[in-house]
Amino acid sequence: MNAVNATEVAIVGAGPYGLSLSAQLTSAGVPHRIFGRPMEVWADFMPAGMFLKSDGIASDLYDAEGTQTLKNFCQSRGLQYDDLTVPVSLENFVNYGLDFQAQKVPALEKHLVTSVERKDGLFELQLDNGEKLRAQRVVVASGISYLHYIPPEIEKLGPVLCTHTREHTGFAKFRGKRVAVVGRGASAIDTAALLHAAGAHCEVIARHAVNFGSGPGKGKRPLLDRMLHPHFGLGSSFRSSMYALFPHLFHFLPLKLRKRIVSRHLGPGVGYMLRPQVEGLVTIHVGYHIVEAKPLGDGVVLVCANAQGEKLEVACDHVIAGTGYRPAVKKVAYLSPELISAIELEEETPVLTSNFESSVPGLYFTGVLAAHSFGPLLRFALGARFTSATLASHLRRVVPVAQPGQQLPQSEAG
C-alpha cells in the first residue's frame, strides 16, 4: 500500500465518540486517521439557545489522562458549571468539544467520507476532497447524522412544507407564521419554545404528555436517598445506574429484553428549564396523532385524532417534525449497499461483539447504532467513555503500536 492513502484504523465522525476514541488511540500509540467536521451534529443541526438533557457530569469527552473535562473547560473560562445543578448550554458544549479537538485531536481531517466499500479484505474509503484511502479497520462514529425520522403522514408534504428539527438552528424566518411541531421530546419542545420566542404562533401535537424533568434538588441529597437513588450520569435511579455502570453485562441479555429496555428506558423527556418557556405560551395538544396532512393554499391542515376517535384540525404554514432519530444501518449513506448487506442485523442495527465489531471483520459501530448491544447508555454522550476505553483497549491489542520513544504517523503503509 502507498503510505499516503493507507491507514490501520479510520474513524468516520468527529463528535464525542469519534474524538474521544481518537484521543485515546493517540495516547496508546495506535496509528489511525479521523475524518469529519468537529461537533458537526451539535453545531449545525441543533437549535441555537437550547440546553442539553444530560447533566454536566455526563457531558464530558474522554482523553486517556482525564484532564480535558467540561468542568475544567468552564472553570478556565469563567463559565458557570456544576456537576448536577447547572444546565449545560449547547454553546458551551460545542465550544468545549472544539477545544477538546484542538488540544487532543489536532490531526483531525475535516473532510467527509462519502463512501466505504469492502475490497480484497480491506476497506476503501472515498473522501469529499477526491482522496481514496485504504484501511484495515473502520469505526463508524457518525452519531445521528443520517438517522433522523419524519413520520410518513407528514413527510409526503415535501421539504417546503415539512422539515425536521435538525434542519433549523434559528427561527427568525417564522416570525408571524403558524407552525405546528410534532413530538414531545427535547428537540420538539426546545423548538416550540424558540419558535415562540422568535414571534411565531406555535402549536405542538403530541401522542403523550410532555415529561418535564423535575430539576435539581436544593443542597446535597441525604445519604440514604443517594444510596437508594444513585446518580452515575443517566439520572437518579438504581436502574439507570446499572445501565451506566455495566454496559458490558447488558450485552449478554436476550435480544428481546435488550430491545425493550432501549426503547422504553429514558424515553422522550424535556429539561425542567423549558417548562416556563412553553407552559401557558404554547398550545400543546396531548393525546393526538396525525391521521392526514393536507396542503391548503400555501399552508397545511393536519387532521389529528385521539384514542376516543375525536378529531382535531390544525392549520399552519409549516410543519416541523420533532420526532427524533431511528437507528438503522441502511440509513448510513456512506456505507455501500454491498457492505450493508453483509452486516448481520438485529432490528436494523448491527450485531456486535463485546469489542463493538460487527459481523464484517474490522468494521465497528458506536453510539446509537450500538445501543441494542450495550444499552441506553449508548444513546447519550456519556457512552463515549465506555466506548472509547473499550475500543482503544481492543485496537491496541490487534493493531501494531509505537514502541517507547517511537512516533508512528497518523497514516502508514499496511
Descriptive overview:
Strands 1, 2, 3, 4, 5 and 16 form a 6-stranded mixed sheet that branches. Strands 6-13-7-8-9 form a 5-stranded parallel sheet, covered by helices on one side. Strands 10-11-12 form a 3-stranded antiparallel sheet, with no helix packed on it. It is built from 14 helices and 16 strands. It has 2 domains: 3-147 and 325-398, 3-Layer(bba) Sandwich (FAD/NAD(P)-binding domain), CATH 3.50.50; 152-212 and 269-321, 3-Layer(bba) Sandwich (FAD/NAD(P)-binding domain), CATH 3.50.50.60. The protein is globular. A hairpin with a 2-residue loop joins β14 (345-346) and β15. 42% of the residues are buried. The chain has helices spanning 16-28, 40-44, 70-76, 90-104, 152-155, 186-197, 223-228, 238-245, 247-250, 255-264, 275-278, 337-341, 371-374, 383-398, and strands at 6-12, 32-35, 113-119, 122-127, 132-140, 162-164, 178-182, 201-206, 283-286, 289-296, 299-305, 311-316, 318-321, 345-346, 349-350, 363-365. The N and C termini lie close together (6 Å). By secondary structure, it is an alpha/beta fold. Helices cover 27% and strands 20% of the residues. α1 (16-28) runs parallel beside α4 (90-104) and α1 packs parallel to α14 (383-398).
